[in-house]
Amino acid sequence: MTIAIRPDTADVRARREAALERINGGPSRQKRSGAPKRAKPSRRVVKTSKPAEREVLGPTPGIYYWIGLTVAAFVMLGLVMVLSATSAREVASSETPYDTFMRQSMWAAIGLVGLVIALKVPYHRWRALVIPLAVIAAGLMMLPFVPGVGVTVNDANSWVRFGSFGFQPSEFLKLAAIAFLADHFTRHEHDLHLPRHGLIPLGLVTFGCAGVSFMQGDLGAAIVLTAVSLCVALIAGVPFRHIGAITAVGAMGAMIAVMSSPWRFNRLTAFRDIEGNKEHLAFQSWQGLLSIANGGWTGSGIGGSRSKLGYLPYAHSDFIFAVIADELGFIGSVAVIGGFGLIVWFGVQAALAAPDRFGMLLAGGIACWLGVQAIVNIGGVAGVIPVTGLTLPFFSAGGTSLSVSMVAAGLLLNVARRAITAPRPRRAAKRAGRAHASTRTGRPTRSTARV
């Protein structure tokens, strides 16, 4: 039996040290103190007589548990809020108040299966399926244009329905675009300054995904796809002039599209005067602000919101954050916003400590996706930005959004589980101090005696 170190270990180790220096605010104390370092290999590949290689994982990092606990809490709280937002309305229209809740629970179970599969299979094995999955996701985006298959919901022709089964293809496209760009930028990491490897592929993916979503009337998906694509490119190291050029062209195209339609222009600018447009264009935003104000500090309690009794449209989907603020109050709202902040923060930490470039881009793209989508949804509910009809990840009633978000969380956990960890600076400084004291007194300390 022989032990072989990965061929890219030296490059990964150098990048890890640079990332740790950025996180800790400079070189580690252990390096400044000149204390000897112990070799602690955190990732090995053990070769046996069989042709297959078995991955040996090191200690589980703390970011893995933080992400997992936050996602689990969000999914369970989301199911409770969906039941609270829909039960009263469904009592008057059907025999049971649990229709939407049971459907959301079914999608949560499907998402849990996808999360476990995405977590258990090493993420680098998914690279072989990136291009086929991207092609499938692009093909699914064409289905809403097929007569009899595409369904218009909330003025957006972005849904597909086969009988009683329906889904939204743009949710799959978000994850497929992140994985495709991560794979492409990894394969051409040294040639991203060339337009054929950096600017052109990024422009095709960004404008293609956002353009199709905009043609379907799904402005929220177009915004998220654009932001996520540019975020992955920024992390990968695409030159700023290329990212700036794509951003400028995209902003100009979006402005022309908005100005060409008076209805679309008035709809997007209504948030600037919500009270003046509360009777028509900003009715939903006004009701959302009333729900947030009714919550106070501690909220009205689970099930205590009155705005969901027909006053607030789409209380269970696009505006579920207003119900959260009403029933959980300011404290609950801050907790939900802070939870998304934790996912983004620890997702960035997982990207910085990823063992390879593909894992870094995949984790960074997923963290950016969840963060941007939460900002757009909560900002629209709070009246800070225009309402785009975007769901709140893990909370809004929408099976496709919930299940795909859980799969993305599984991939994020996959990268976090394989993160390369390092000793804490304080512990390293203590070890260095004990070693220095032992050299002065000549007495072996507990740490040096073990060595």
Automatic annotation (TrEMBL):
**Top EC class for this record:** transferase
Q: Which GO terms describe its biological process?
A: cell division; peptidoglycan biosynthetic process; regulation of cell shape
Q: Which GO cellular component terms, listed alphabetically, does the Swiss-Prot or TrEMBL entry include?
A: cell division site; plasma membrane
Enzyme Commission designation: 2.4.99.28
Enumerate the InterPro entries for this protein.
Answer: Cell_cycle_FtsW-rel_CS (IPR018365), FtsW/RodA (IPR001182)
Q: Looking at the record, which segments are called Disordered?
A: 20-51, 423-451
Give the UniProt family note. Belongs to the SEDS family. FtsW subfamily.
**By what name is this protein known?**
Probable peptidoglycan glycosyltransferase FtsW
